[in-house]
Amino acid sequence: MASIEASHRKWYVAAAGAALGVVAVAVGLAWHQSAARTPAPPVVIVGDGVATPKDMAWIPSGVFQMGSDSQLAQPNERPAHAVKVQGFWMDVAHVTNEQFAEFVRQTGYVTTAERKPDWETIRVQLPPGIARPPDDVLVPGAMVFVGTSGPVDLADYSQWWQYVPGASWRHPQGPGSSIEGKEDHPVVQVSYEDALAYAAWAGKRLPSEAEWEYAARGGLEQATYVWGDELMPDGKPLANYWDSRQRTFPVVSPDAGGAAGTLRARTFPPNGYGLHDMTGNAWQWVADWYGADYFTQQARAAGRTPIDNPTGPAEAFDPSEPGVPVHAPKRVIRGGSFLCNESYCLSYRPSARRGSDPYSPMSHVGFRLAKNAPAPVARLEAGDAMAR
C-alpha cells in the first residue's frame, strides 16, 4: 500500500449401502453448508431522519465468521474466526464530496492534505536516522495514482503513485483537477484524522473493523464477495474495480482507456443490509489500529468462543513494508477501490484488509460512518413476532 512516506524515500502483496450412506451424508452436508452460507435475507431498514438516523441502515447484532480461509485470502485475513457484534447503524454509502463540502463550509475545517506536512508524523514512517527534508519539500499535497504508460513490475508501487503538491479532496489528482460534477462521488484524499473530524461534526463514529466486515457481508456467511461467490453474475460487474481483462494494471495511457477513478456512490445494488459499494470504488477508513497478525492472535486466544466486539490491537504491526518500522502508526482500511484487480491486490472482497498511514491522504481512500442509536421499532416488533 502506497503512502506519503514512499515519496520521501525516493531520496525513501460395505459397498452399495455404505456408498449410498456416504452419498446421503455428502448431500446432507452440502445442503447444510449451502443453507448456512445463504441464510434467509435480512430485513433492510434504512433510517428516515425522524425516528431513526437518516440514510443509515440498521445492522442487527449477531455472530459471524470474520476473516477468511479461502484460496484467495491473504495471510493477514487468516484464520476465519467467530466474532460477535452488537447492533448499530451504518451509512448506506460512502461520505460524498457534497457532504464533506457542507462540513467544511460550516466548520472551516482544513484537511491534512491542505496543511503543511508535519515532519514528526512523517518521520515515524521512515527508517531511523533519515534527515528532515528542506521546507520546500514539505508542502501541502497528497498521494495520487498517476499510473504508467506501459506494463511495469508490480513489485514497485512508486511507479504509479506520486506525492502531488496541491492535491486535496477538492483537487483529487492535483491542481487542475476538480470534483465539479462529482458531488455524489465518494470524497477521497481524506486522512484518518479528517474522517474523525467529520464524524465528530456529524455525531457519528468510524466503525470498528469487525463491525465493518459484518456489515459488508450483508448476512452471507463466508461468501467471497459481498454479493456471493461469483465475481460477475450474469456477466455484469457489481463493484467499481479495475478489470484486468480489459486493460493492464496500472497502465493509464489513452490507448488503455485513460485513468480510472471513482463512480457515484450507490452506483451498484445494495447488499443484504441495504449498504451500497461496501467493496470497490474507494477504500474505507475504520477505527482500528492495523495488526497484520491480529486475526491469528485473536483466534488463538479465543479458540471457538466468539470474540465479543473486538476493537483491534493496542498498537500497529506491519512487517510487510521494507524500510518502514514494523510498529509505525497504521490504521485499517477496508473494501478495496477502483484500483483493485485480479493481477494485483484483489481487495474487493469483504475479508481483505490493509494498513495505511493515518496522516496520508490518497486518491482512492474515503470513508463511511457508524452510529450508536436505539434499534428501530420495526426491527423490535419483528423480533417480538418471531418470538411469539
Supply database-style keywords:
single chain; 388 residues; alpha+beta; paralog of FGE (formylglycine-generating enzyme); three-stranded antiparallel sheet; globular; disordered N terminus; disordered C terminus; transmembrane helix; transmembrane; Sulfatase_Mod_Factor_Kinase
Protein architecture, described:
By secondary structure, this protein is of the alpha+beta class. It has one domain: paralog of FGE (formylglycine-generating enzyme) (Alpha-Beta Complex), CATH 3.90.1580. It has helices spanning 4-9, 15-37, 97-107, 119-123, 192-202, 209-217, 294-302, 377-387; strands at 56-59, 62-66, 81-85, 88-91, 141-145, 161-165, 283-289, 307-308, 331-334, 353-356, 365-366, 370-371. The protein has a four-stranded mixed β-sheet. Strands 1-4-12 form a three-stranded antiparallel β-sheet, with helices on one face. The chain is globular and about 55 Å long. GO terms for molecular function: formylglycine-generating oxidase activity.
Counting DSSP H or I runs of 4 or more residues, the number of helices is: 8
Strand order of the largest sheet: 10-9-7-11
Q: Major beta sheet, specifics?
A: 4 strands, mixed
Content-based structural category: alpha+beta
Portion in beta strands? 5-15%
**H and E string:** HHEEEEHHEEHHEHEEEEEH
Gross morphology is globular
- CATH C-level name: Alpha Beta
Helix content: 10-25%
Oligomeric assembly? single chain
Number of domain modules = 1
Domain Sulfatase-modifying factor enzyme-like: 54-371
Protein name: Formylglycine-generating enzyme family protein
GO molecular function: formylglycine-generating oxidase activity
Organism: Verticiella sediminum
